[in-house]
Design goal:
mainly alpha
């Protein structure tokens, strides 16, 4: 009851403050939608990955309004897109509907009836060994397997994160494994920084989710550690935003970020990265923070779409999602005449009326909410996020109910969904990527879990 009272007080205070900002409408909608998302998806003792993905998508819809509030200016003055307020409302509504669908699918799921972190008879040393072997195998396959099979490698990489999560959750709950957890976290973040796209955020996200999952009610110490993780993630994001252009240019040997080619050895990458981080000053941090906010926000293209569709380009009456389903369920092996996917940037230009450099190799998407608006219109579009939420929630529930697998089942559920945290991808990539990952994961789980269980189970004397 005290917790509920505190939550109510915070919610009322947040809504009250929102009405006093420069942008009361969009800020109030952002605070209200966040309250709804947390209320629907926070389940004590369960990995809050569904709350995480909705929270990240919410941030993409809300951060531009908050940014305008900080500077005391109206949101519409921060862009040439006239419909920026409407785009913010639509995006916040989109995320809220995902939360509604996910909450409905998981409505009867509790920590008591799910795969629990505590009490699992898994061997931490064996889990570390299998994680290390799996990591090496995935890295070798990334180089050795041709592009046609990279989807399988991608699924194996996603499942690698399941081991990382399991290590974090099990190691932290045991207490004696916390130094090991911090060592693996440091190594994952460091290696993530050295990659072309700098995948340093995922291990930090997994650690935070695992930390909250290791008990029904987070302790004061857990909140303190979470605050440190949040601050570290934010700082690393700002630093990366300030150096990434120059870093990628160095990695590609001067060919530029669009080449996505890495010509430096790991040692050379490390030296370049350290030199660039050492050169960051206050001015660069300020520019990096501005760049980070701009990168997170994903409503501006939607605002341009709202001014262009249906005034110039008509709604597509379901054609975009029909093509997405056809691309997924009509494999090219059986349908060799299937048309190739159109460039994301070409699609973005068509529905925004902007010149985005479609012929220069850039890849720009208008985002899934905007794409669905183009396809289905301003009302029917909200059926799609509801269905997505139902799908995510159903898969999450399936793995959380695998009580025999414990923390590994939690890890698979988290790993499968942590990458669904952006409104940016196109419909084809979201649907195709998720369903392919689901099929491969289910096959590997059915075939591999009995073997993996024997390998991971602790030996009792």
């Amino acid at each position: 009851m005290p917790t509920m009272g505190l939550g109510l007080m915070v919610s009322v205070a947040g809504l009250g403050i929102a009405t006093a900002t420069t942008n009361p409408g969009t800020t109030f909608a952002a605070v209200l939608s966040l309250i709804l998302i947390v209320r629907l998806l926070w389940r004590p003792g369960l990995p809050p990955v569904l709350l995480f993905i909705c929270g990240m998508q919410w941030l993409q819809g809300a951060v531009m309004a908050f940014h305008a509030d900080v500077f005391g200016v109206e949101l519409r003055t921060m862009t040439y897109a006239r419909h920026i307020d409407e785009a913010t409302y639509y995006t916040l509504g989109w995320v809220s509907m995902i939360a509604v669908g996910a909450a409905f699918a998981t409505r009867n799921l509790t920590a008591v009836g799910s795969a629990a972190t505590h009490g699992m008879s898994l061997s931490l040393p064996r889990l570390i060994a299998i994680y290390a072997v799996w990591t090496v195998v995935v890295r070798v396959l990334e180089v050795a397997i041709p592009g046609q099979a990279q989807q399988i490698v991608g699924a194996l990489e996603t499942l690698r994160w399941a081991f990382v999560y399991a290590l974090f959750a099990l190691g932290w709950s045991l207490g004696r494994g916390r130094m090991i957890v911090l060592g693996i976290l440091t190594a994952e973040v460091a290696f993530g920084f050295l990659s072309f796209f700098s995948n340093f955020k995922t291990p930090l996200y997994l650690f935070a989710i695992a930390l909250v999952s290791s008990g029904y009610r987070p302790t004061l110490r857990q909140y303190f550690v979470l605050a440190i993780v949040f601050a570290a993630t934010l700082y690393f994001g700002v630093v990366w935003s300030s150096i990434k252009r120059e870093y990628r240019n160095e990695l590609s040997g001067g060919l530029g970020a669009s080449s996505q080619v890495v010509v430096l050895s790991p040692e050379e990458r490390f030296d370049v990265f350290v030199d660039l981080v050492g050169s960051v000053d206050a001015r660069m941090l300020e520019e990096g923070a501005e760049s980070l906010v701009t990168r997170i926000a994903y409503v501006e293209y939607f605002a341009y779409v709202l001014g262009y569709v249906p005034r110039v380009e008509p709604h597509q009456d379901g054609g975009i999602w029909a093509n997405a389903f056809a691309h997924v369920f009509l494999p090219r092996v059986l349908f060799p005449d299937k048309a190739a996917l159109e460039s994301d940037t070409v699609i973005a230009e068509r529905y925004t009326g902007l010149d985005l450099g479609a012929g220069t190799g850039t890849s720009i998407t208008i985002g899934l909410p905007a794409e669905t608006y183009v396809d289905l219109g301003p009302v029917v579009m909200f059926i799609v996020p509801l269905l997505l939420g139902l799908m995510y929630g159903s898969v999450y529930r399936y793995f959380l109910r695998r009580r025999e697998a414990g923390v590994m089942a939690q890890g698979v559920a988290v790993a499968m969904h942590v990458g669904m945290s952006s409104v940016g991808p196109a419909a084809t990539k979201v649907l195709g990527g998720y369903l392919a990952l689901l099929v491969i994961t289910l096959v590997l789980w059915r075939l591999g879990w009995p073997v993996l269980e024997r390998a991971l189970r602790a030996q009792h004397r």
